[in-house]
Batch of 2 targets.
Target 1
Amino acid sequence: MAEPDTGRFLADLHDLRRIGAYRTGVHRPTYSADDMESRRWLMAHMRDLGLEPEMDGIGNVLGRHPGPAPRLLVGSHIETQNEAGWLDGALGVVAGLALARAGLAVDVAAFADEEGHYGSFLGSRSLIGEVTEEEIDAARHAQDGTPLRNALAAAGLAGLPRMRLDPSRYRGFLELHIEQGSKLEKAGLRSGVVSGVFGVRIFRVEIEGQQDHTGGTTMAERKDAVVAAMRVLSLVDERFPMAAGPDTVWTCGRVVVEPNAPHIIAGRAELVIQFRDLDEALLDGLSSLLARIVQEVDRRDRCTLRLHPVSRSGAALADPALHAALKAAAERHAPGAWQVMPSGAIHDAQHIAKVLPMAMLFTPSIGGVSHHWTEDTSEADLALAIRILADAAEAALAG
Amino acid sequence: MAEPDTGRFLADLHDLRRIGAYRTGVHRPTYSADDMESRRWLMAHMRDLGLEPEMDGIGNVLGRHPGPAPRLLVGSHIETQNEAGWLDGALGVVAGLALARAGLAVDVAAFADEEGHYGSFLGSRSLIGEVTEEEIDAARHAQDGTPLRNALAAAGLAGLPRMRLDPSRYRGFLELHIEQGSKLEKAGLRSGVVSGVFGVRIFRVEIEGQQDHTGGTTMAERKDAVVAAMRVLSLVDERFPMAAGPDTVWTCGRVVVEPNAPHIIAGRAELVIQFRDLDEALLDGLSSLLARIVQEVDRRDRCTLRLHPVSRSGAALADPALHAALKAAAERHAPGAWQVMPSGAIHDAQHIAKVLPMAMLFTPSIGGVSHHWTEDTSEADLALAIRILADAAEAALAG
């Protein structure tokens, strides 16, 4: 059985957290000086382990194992959200190093900009051929508007070719990540074997009412966009539970009201509604249900409502063999202390799954905290995770 | 019967609209150079008519009639909302001049800052002794934060004493104003005799949920502030119609969601809910109903809700004798083409009513437009209004 050096694994994680350290977390936004230093740190460690590292024109780092097939691809992302946690994606990248150190035939990858500072999964999507030069030309920093081209040039990446993943090199892809939720902690469990990554549908509901003075306009005359928005949310709250599966989640996280003044009846409102599940047919059913709800309020209410699709990302199921290997390894190393669970958050694995068999493993997030510098996982659970991952990888390579 | 010079009345209104002209409307925010020029314009016209004008330390202009009692007070406000209509308050001020010109014993008033650029009805409230020096010290411009003291100094008003209204001078107060709604136009009527000015209750509902990732948090775990906000609005929509009177209006015009991002369950939300009616007991009943609704959602939902009173302005009923005089005059000058109606918007009359018998008259607003440069009323309806007002004033002075 492959015996990963858990002490060295933890030491590498602590070493990496020094780069861009922010309080007990890290601040390494994509293409920042600290992010680029972390990529060079990674390439140096790859070289020490006998992997052949390469960084490409979008910032992806891939360390190729020199030995013959069969091989696995192992990795995640190394940049972070602003003032965020020390583990998150770094955990999955350093896990790849630990597996290579344990003598397993793995390529190690750090996919660029998983955190979406400039785009949507630019690194993993670029590796599978989904990112065009036009998309790169058009991409801007989400907050400050810096063109992606300028950021790539400043990071020394302009002109470098972009790698394409060669699926024939690998039996599959493994990603270790923190849970980013509190299901494991609440259940008193130490590890989560991911059944798949939720598909996500995002819609925007646009509501046109009529802006009027709150005092001079009778209730019967009003076209109040806030009232129509409330009716949509109320029907979603009433009807989604009947159409949803046990794991489905749905959310309206964004509400825009115009002019949003106490004495003015809102003339316009906007809701952003999303839902997530592993079951694509169920997600399509919920999309139809939302369309019927919006149509119903449009017909009954004096406001005009329109539904606009914003984005759609397909669910990705774990490969049965890799998933089974992770379950078997979890039960060996932590009998009764793990569970199968879906990933509600999207990961690079969702995109890599389009070209390779994929499986993911979760470590518990203390207090469910994610994307904040206080994010943490106990060292015992981190050590357990690398033992499970190495064991499963060995089984997959032997199978 | 008092015969106002309707031609001169309209000419004065058109002359005044040149000051701060903006497209077909005007832009005369409180204490701006144009606002101060309009006050000097008013004082010059008062002098021409034999009134004795005075401007006070908050910008109120009062033109006192030199003759003996009985007298009436007639007026409104002369500053405007930004890029707003040419009539609004100016109509009621210039109406005062027209009545004085027709030989009626009226004092004419322009109350400062009815439009609330710096405070809440600063001019009329100051005249009845409700504004302290501390309130003036603390007041800031609603948008740019300029201290009121600085604005008063820049307008040349610093150090001037503030007038106090002497109720013993007057039989009552008359205010002519545009409707700011479309009830008259929709009913095909030309004039509205105001039964009273709605009282207003404003409350803020504060909702504390828990900010979480939309993908990693199960529906059962969530404390979603948007869902709790929707439940409050839904119960208001369901229960207010049963407790409200035929004229009651209720509105949520302001919704704040934090952090208001598509992928984050809202950790905090805020609703500003207001309701208006002539019946104070009914308004108190609705306040209790809202408190029960917020309590119910607080108990049933996983979020924590708190209700905060924001402001309370009492309803002001028209004085029966002045109201009857306006009705009689309306029927004489426009038989069958007028109606009794409440004022949903607050006016200076609501504050002056605390110390004087009060009555108001409305002219139709074309298309219901108010607080916008396209606001307008037909000249025929303006001329009709000044004839009704003069007739009623003459009756009140004779009575």
Target 2
Amino acid sequence: MFAIGIDIGGTSIKGAIVNDTGKVLTRFAMDVNKNASGEDEVNRFCDVMIKSINDYDNSIKLEGIGIGMPGILDMDKGVVITSPNLPKWNGLHISKLISKRMGLPVYINNDANVATLGEARFGSGKEYSNLIMLTLGTGVGGGIIIDNKLYDGNKHMGAELGHMVIRVNGEKCGCGRRGCFEAYASATALIRDTKKEMDKCPDSLMHDVSKELGKINAKVVFEASRRGDKAAIRVMKRYVNYLSEGILNYCNIFRPEVVVLSGGVANEGDYLLDQVRHYLKNHKYGMKGSPKVELKVASLGYDSGKIGAACLVFE
Amino acid sequence: MFAIGIDIGGTSIKGAIVNDTGKVLTRFAMDVNKNASGEDEVNRFCDVMIKSINDYDNSIKLEGIGIGMPGILDMDKGVVITSPNLPKWNGLHISKLISKRMGLPVYINNDANVATLGEARFGSGKEYSNLIMLTLGTGVGGGIIIDNKLYDGNKHMGAELGHMVIRVNGEKCGCGRRGCFEAYASATALIRDTKKEMDKCPDSLMHDVSKELGKINAKVVFEASRRGDKAAIRVMKRYVNYLSEGILNYCNIFRPEVVVLSGGVANEGDYLLDQVRHYLKNHKYGMKGSPKVELKVASLGYDSGKIGAACLVFE
């Protein structure tokens, strides 16, 4: 079986033909023009898609198209309610539009759920029936797999795992509350704390590293901390503390078999994970007698969204 | 169909014959002797049970026995691993023991899960397929129903809904972490905060109310606050704030159809619930476009554990 998986982001739309063993056969992409209407952009992407299918194999039998997209969606009707990064798409009947152009059934779900499905079926989660995925990016996205099924709550509006308050009255969050997990464990939060510490410590190596990298991003603190910079180590310690407390919460709530971390920050791999594992081990990693929860980095990288979107079709 | 539901607590064991429409046909109970062995106490309760069955109807056909019990259990093997309030029961093969004496299959689960099952099948949750129950008592217990099924995580060790940190580095919790929901939303936490405020405010009405009641319990702050006492209103406000933040977290994580509150504090009913509803409404009760989550008080009262335990048999 073959399907198309589409991963819509704020700056580009990426797609792929994927088979039902999770293999990506061909990839295609298009930059988004934020000033154009959602309808125009989707039509333009359909052109790209049609050309790519024909270039790859114009006799391929596709079962359907799956889409992962950020924002608030009416998944049953296939409508974008609000998408903060693509405001011109608000109200767009995206599934109907693509289905009509392509003559295929279209399924949509939010980007974090779709990436979780990809990792659960063909990535780091494939050996487990119960998992939590946390995507540490601009925000913190989440996905929940229970008994091998995606769980996303009433009307698909749950699994907002970044919006669990871990510090009442804490840092402001984009959602309107204060102290959300996202406000401490996202790359955005890490960069905010990096900048604060750099302002306080003009001698920190973080200044040199950010000059080398040409900007202040999440890599600055990791690199400076690897080189032994005390200020960077303080920022890392605080980040690991909050990230781990959030993970511990999800262990106690779900007791999954595995927690999978994805997103730019998670790509730091064992340098980050070992510090988190150390914290978890020393801070009541579950109740007495509880089975251990594994901690892993997502393995599909940037393909998890496209592969997961194709899974919406296969299931 | 008929089954026996048993609700084991730190001071007494309660049981009932329940039919499969959730009706309690007869109740029986026994005080626990904490100095006796678990085996002796369970045997003594079996005598009470046998007598009660014979007194009720010695020809009744029972399908089995369900047990709800606090502590860490091996539910598959029916063994008490550790029970903080009944330390002499640690290691007890409770299911085997009762099954042998009674000649019936025995099922066991923790008390919070069992009470949730009772409310979900025959109480405040019976019209819903997805619900969260929070029991506000000595601790905060929790139960999760997803697609009409009890969800309790890997090896039944999840659904520890009281042990989600809502204030990193906050109040000490019995579990060993700091800042758990339980450390702010339990009756124990409310009493701790009541006492603190009473020490600070010698003129508070809470002193009079506690003298009337003969002790300082969770009722003191409710009664004094109903009478307009400013210090009590401050304690209530803080309690409602933390309780509501925890509930909001569970809305964002699960987006259930309903959150059911039980336990002594929840019995204050609408006086408490209206304040919580007011807070939720003004603090981003879910994401934009999200379906509303209902908030209800458990309706089975002290029978929820016994009825829920019987449900373990029927299912």
